[in-house]
Amino acid sequence: MEKERPLCMSCADLDHLMFLPSGNTALTRRARKHSTLDAVVVRFSRTRGRYERQGVLVEEAALEQAEEQCLADEDARERRRVRDVQRRENEDVELRTRTAREITRLFPGCPAVRSEAIAHHTATRGSGRVGRSAAGRALDDNAITAAVVASVRHEDTAYDRLLMSGVPRAEARDRVRPDIDRVLDGWRGV
User: Fold this and answer.
1) What angle do CA 119, 122, 127 make, to 5 degrees?
2) Contact of 88 with 125, CB cutoff 8 Å
3) How far apart are CA 36 and CA 147, in angstroms?
4) Is residue 103 within 8 Å of residue 121, measured between CB atoms?
5) How far apart are CA 46 and CA 52, in angstroms?
6) 144 alpha-carbon distance from chain centroid
7) Which of 99, 189, 190 is nearest to 151 (CA)?
8) Residue 165 backbone dihedrals phi, psi, to 5 degrees
């Protein structure tokens, strides 16, 4: 874009560059490092209302040099990826274990199988659930309670049936709140 108008690659003096699509971080980083000129390629997403990165334009020689470097250390990067996957899996198991213990501390009457199921569900990596939030990972009482409440809402009440029958979310939550409180009081030993 120049002066609010799109330009073709030739008009923008970028037609000598090669397009490198997003997806390979090491290759992109190295290609941009070796290229004296590079440009980020974006596309506007109407659904998300923002520009999204599609890749980069780099000089051909820089791309070739970056590909050679990536081939040279591919084994080391693969070993690191495997170690990182294992490390993340171990962290996830530890988080689920700590979360289940914390659920049991806050709700001693909660069956062990249920606390483990809640911990597993809420701590799933990439889920966006409360267990993956900073508060959830820190085992904040409010975050743990929110995860337990969500589980009770879906597992022990008519909440899902109410939603499926067309009851608005806020009203459905209000209707099931006494049932949730009853279950939580029982698990707290109140």
Assistant:
1) 145
2) yes
3) 50
4) no
5) 10
6) 19
7) 99
8) -90, 5
Q: What is the pLDDT of residues 96-139, one digit of tens each?
A: 999 999 999 999 999 999 999 999 999 888 777 887 888 888 88
Which tokens go with 151?
A: 């589980």
Q: In the chain, which residues have pLDDT < 50? A: none
Distance CA 121, CA 96 (A): 9
Task: Calculate the CA dihedral of residues 139, 144, 147, 153 and round it to 10 degrees.
Answer: 180
Q: 23 vs 13, 75, 114, CA distance in Å?
A: 25, 18, 39
What is the rounded CA–CA span in Å between residue 158 and residue 147? 18
CA distance 184 to 107: 7
Task: Name the maximum alpha-carbon separation found in the chain.
Answer: 74
